[in-house]
Amino acid sequence: MDPYTVLGVPRTADSSEIKNAYRKLAMKNHPDRGGNEDRFKQINEAYDTLKDPQKKAAYDNPQPGFSFRSDDFAYGNPFSGTPFENMFRQRTTPRNRDITMPVSVTLKDVMFGNTFVVNYQLSTGRLETVNIDIPPGARHGDTIQYEGLGDEGNKNYPRGNLLIKIKLQKDRNWARDGNDLFTRKSVNLFDFLTGGVIIINTLDDRSVKLNIPQGTKPGTTFSITGYGLPDLKTNRKGNVFVKLEAHMPKIKDINLLKEIEELKKKIG
To answer: In whole angstroms, what is the distance from residue 122 CA to residue 151 CA?
Structure first.
């Protein structure tokens, strides 16, 4: 297995290019998101080789009799080094402490995914700046792990990990339940009586027509399939649920009020 081929980078790629390629492939092929576990293991083994200068040098410049095997550079953990909480994190050697950072995100961030710049200070006083990728479908309380970006106080041990804790902000228009979204819509009372069409502006910036059948009762909830949040594993979207509430129009025209009164007598 050629680690350069696995990550899709040239042999001239620097550490930043290798890291970026790995992150994209790890997120795309993670088993928790429907990826192939063997492919995911290959990606991690390739990155484990190329991220370490000594291992990379050993692979790039093999000594006589040297034969590269992925097992030479794997630690028996196919999930090592990926930015997800559900990784095995067995420690074979001591390391510096992990750093946990909360990141506040909106439902819009969860709908499309987003990248944040996180700044934090290490115990040595050094400031660290890291780009954090929030995947579509992330949930409140999820933790994203970035290996080797934690504290570095003890120079005799490897750096700890950076743990990004997702905090989902409340939205004034939408509530979340799993991948489904719930909202309320105020509708003119006459639309319930006669029927009508209203426009629902979804979280992903689309406009959807919702038909209100004649005689619909206030408080009725309608569902719109496929306009909810994406699933973290499958990317399949949930549904939108709209609860219709009656808006009472203010009628000041006396003649119109009389007509409505007559109508009420007829249909009462």
So the answer is: 6
Residues 34-55: tens digit of each pLDDT: 778 788 888 888 888 888 887 7
| CA–CA gap between residue 258 and residue 73 (Å, rounded) | 86
Residue pair 7/17 in contact by the 8 Å Cβ criterion = no
Give the range among 17-21, 99-103, 231-235, 247-251 with minimum mean pLDDT.
Answer: 247-251
Cα 204 to Cα 111: distance, rounded to the nearest angstrom: 7
Which residues, 6 or more positions from 227, have their beta carbon under 8 angstroms from its beta carbon? 181, 202, 203, 204, 206, 208, 237, 239, 240
- Indicate the pTM of the whole model: 0.59
Residue-range domains of the chain with CATH: 1-80 (1.10.287.110), 91-169 (2.60.260.20), 175-249 (2.60.260.20)
Average pLDDT score over residue span 204-216:
93
Using CA atoms, how far apart are residues 120 and 123, in angstroms rounded to an integer? 10
Q: Which of 122, 128, 129, 127 minimizes the C-alpha distance to 153?
A: 122
